[in-house]
Amino acid sequence: xxxxxxxxxxxxxxxxxxxxxxxxxxxxxxxxDPALAARVVLLAGIADGLDGVVARYSGGSAAGPYLDSLAxxxxxxVAPAVVVYVxxxxxxxxxxxxxxxxxxxxxVVPALxxxxxxxxxxxxxxxxxxxxxxxxxxxxxxxxxLAAAVLSGVTDPRVLVVATAAxxxxxxxxxxxxxxxxxxxxxxxxxxxxxxxxxxAFGRTFPWAILTLGVAxxxxxxxxxxxxxxxxxxxxxxxx
Length: 240
What we know:
The structure is a single chain. By secondary structure, the protein is an all-alpha fold. It contains eight helices and two strands; from the N terminus they run H-H-H-H-E-H-H-E-H-H. Helices cover 68% and strands 2% of the residues. The protein has a two-stranded antiparallel sheet.
């Protein structure tokens, strides 16, 4: 007897499920090497963009949007939250086995990040999939910025906690973010790949490039990125 998904899922869905698996790998890796886990999160970002490209050229399935949001919970909610938790607790020298008052901050802020990320993805799937914009910061963008920060060497626990706390609100805000255009998504995909493959090259140039571009889009995208002369594509920071 064949599995239920045979004949119902597409090649794009296979890429999406690979994205979810990368989220698990990032979580497990984070406890041994947060920087490596950050690279896996960025790799998941590439997979998240790739499934949209594959769906465009080979077709998707009715389950595709739901699978995409479920995969994003693993890769862009839970995984970056764990990376932040491990980085912050290592810097503060605390753990569940050695609790201190700061442990509550290290636990609660990433937990809220996961909760609001799940809410944001549910709202996106229900209301935004047909639009060329989305309300609230994309989970992919939030995860990318946090992962790129860790990979760039920005490991000050105060900075990471504040940034994560900011995303807790921004992901469920009503600020509209436009989908990335195809040419810009391709550029970001190339920089993502270089950051994953050679993160320390040229003084960590590629992680810093991702961090800079991500923050620029975060701050300026809703006001300066809108375009009418090109076709948007659901890629990287494009939607969920």
